[in-house]
Amino acid sequence: MALQTAEPADLQLGWSRGLSLTARILAVNLFVLALLGAGLFFLDSYRVRLIAERGDAARRQATFLAESLSLVAPEKRAAYIYEFGQEHESRIRVYAQNGEKILDSFAGRPPTYVFRDPDKEPIPKVIARGIDKMFDFLVGAAVLQPFAEPRVDTADAWQHVLKPKPADAVSTIAFAPDLTHVISAGSRSRDGRFAVLTTSNERDIRLFVRAERFNVGMFFVIALGIGIMLSIFLARTIVRPLRHLSRAAVKVRLGRAQEVTVPRLPSRRDEIGMLARALSDMSIALRQRIDATEAFAADVAHEIKNPLASLRSALDGAERIQDPALRKQLMDVAKADVQRMDRLISDISDASRVDSQLAKAKFEPIDLGDMIEQLLQAREDRGSDKDVNIAFARPRRTIATVMGEDVRLERMLTNLIDNAVSFSPPGAVVEISATLADEEVIIRISDEGPGVPPQEREAIFRRFHSERPPTENFGKHSGLGLAIARTIVEGHHGRINVRDRVDGKGGACFEIALPCAAVATR
User: Fold this and answer.
1) Sign of the dihedral through C-alpha 16, 22, 23, 26
2) Rounded to two decimals, what is the model's pTM?
């Protein structure tokens, strides 16, 4: 039979078909974590907004100072700009109309900031600056020019102070030596008397971004570690049992071990556990079926050898014997052996096909009362029962109705009636009844034969088991009739057993219980 190679459309995989299940689990979980890690790069947009806000603030401060200086008494202007610079951590320079610097908040006062020499910073600061450069490169941050004080401290040297119109302001951003931001802003008063330049080292921008990036990075590392551990745990709980089940299934397929134990995983109540138990049950059923097939084949070989040996002996003797009467006797034996083999092969064929045929059969309502009545009438017409009488207690119509296949049910009843007749002495009565009890149709076939000992009541349903009455000719039965009957009954979801007669008389009573049609169709 050709293998099924077509894959259902809803089970097909695309680009991930080459990845193992463990790799897929890791990829899915790590992809989610990668989205979290992308937050490290989105911090750059916050840094850009923060720098822009600081630039706006610096321009507003420069404009405020340029306009407010004319309102401050000349002798208080130095203290005013110094206090303003201290409050905003800025250096403030004030120029006159001719470009001469007239005030400087750092002149004679402690500076509000000092540029740090990167060559003298500790290793952690150097590493942090290297990480900053890496992230600036990854996010495509704008490259800023290094900050440098002009050699001549005049308004001409600070061109951006002269660029704006009165009451306007401009700002520039540069890098200090340690890559922190330096924001300069310039503005002129409306009357043109003063030009103001503010400079501040906004170290907190870089420090804040580093701190947030560190926090997000640490959270990402922790989440990454947890995600990897959970992915490994999930992969182990899914992939490892599937791998064991796959190996066991391969062993079953290859048949390298007589008994392959498929782990049932009884502690798991999920789909993996259900799959494990289903595969275990399937392997057990397969092994039982294989064992039954092997035993059946061995029994067939054994049963066929007997008539073949008898047939060979009769034919060999017929060739050497000249006496016509004796030769005829041997030929009769050969014919009987041929008939026995024909009957045996027919029964073997039926026994081997009944399971598969019942699995595909379409059951229909069948009145067993009518079937038994017609079957007994046909037997009477053929004279099959000889000097044995059959009494049938005909039930009311539709009482004994079951769902089934008529040919198989008729074969089952024929086998059981033949068995009862063969064990009944001359003049005996075989009693048949069909009744409805507890939503089951109960059929009883009772004979007046020797009965069946309790220890043999299960063995008689085995294939090729044949305990025949002494008066019956050898080889008339194959030993498959009761086995076929049980298979047919169980294929109709019923049960069959043998026991003593209910009326206390000698003999055996075969009892068959089948679901009534009303129950079978629910």
Assistant:
1) positive
2) 0.47
DSSP, residue by residue, 327-339: HHHHHHHHHHHHH
CA distance 261 to 458: 29
| Strand pairing report for 181-188 and 169-175 | antiparallel
- What is the Cα–Cα distance from 79 to 95, expressed in whole angstroms? 16
pLDDT score for 355: 66
> In angstroms, rounded to a whole number, what is the distance separating the alpha carbons of residues 201 and 187?
19
Question: CA-based Rg of the chain, rounded to a whole angstrom?
Answer: 52
CA distance 381 to 209: 106
Per residue in 82-116, pLDDT tens?
Answer: 999 999 999 999 998 888 889 999 988 889 888 88
CA distance 199 to 154: 15
Give the pLDDT confidence score for residue 512 in this predicted structure.
Answer: 94
Burial 138-154 (b: 16+ CB within 10 A, else e): eeeeeebeebeeeeeee
**pLDDT tens, position by position, 51-75:** 889 989 999 998 899 889 888 898 8
CA distance 290 to 255: 11
Whole-angstrom distance, CA of residue 363 vs CA of residue 255 = 36
What does the chain come to in residues? 522
Alpha-carbon distance 137 to 141, whole Å? 6
CA distance 317 to 331: 9
Q: How many CB atoms lie within 10 A of CB 256?
A: 9
Whether the CB-CB separation of 164 and 170 falls below 8 Å is answered with yes
Beta-carbon count within 10 A of 99 CB:
15
Calpha distance 431→378 (Å, rounded): 17
Nearest residue to 420 via CA among 374, 364, 460, 366: 460
CB 415, CB 386: distance < 8 Å = no
Half-sphere exposure of 21 (CA within 13 A, CB side): 11
Distance CA 314, CA 335 (A): 10
Report the percentage of the chain scoring pLDDT > 70. 81
- Give the closest residue to 348 by CA, choosing from 188, 210, 464: 464
User: pLDDT tens, 246-281?
Assistant: 888 777 777 655 566 777 777 777 777 788 888 888
Which one-letter DSSP state was computed for residue 119? G
Q: Are 444 and 511 in contact (CB under 8 A)?
A: yes
Backbone angles phi, psi at 449, to 5 degrees: -85, -160
Q: Concatenate the DSSP letters of all residues of 407-473 into one string.
A: HHHHHHHHHHHHHHHHHSPTT-EEEEEEEEETTEEEEEEE--SS---GGGTTGGGSTT-----TTSP
**Beta strand 195-202 with 364-367: parallel, antiparallel or unpaired?**
unpaired
